[in-house]
Amino acid sequence: VSQSRYRALVTQWASKSGMRAASYRVGLAFPPKLLKNDSRVLGELLSRGINNRHVVLKGGRSLMRQYQYGPNAIIQIMSSLVNGSHKVYNCAGSHKISLGSLAELIANITSSELTIEKDSDDLSSPTTVNINFDRITNDSGIIVGSESTLESYLKSVIDNSTHAFTNTGKVSSDQSTRKYFLDVPELSFFC
Question: Are 46 and 157 a contacting pair, CB within 8 Å?
Answer without folding.
Answer: yes
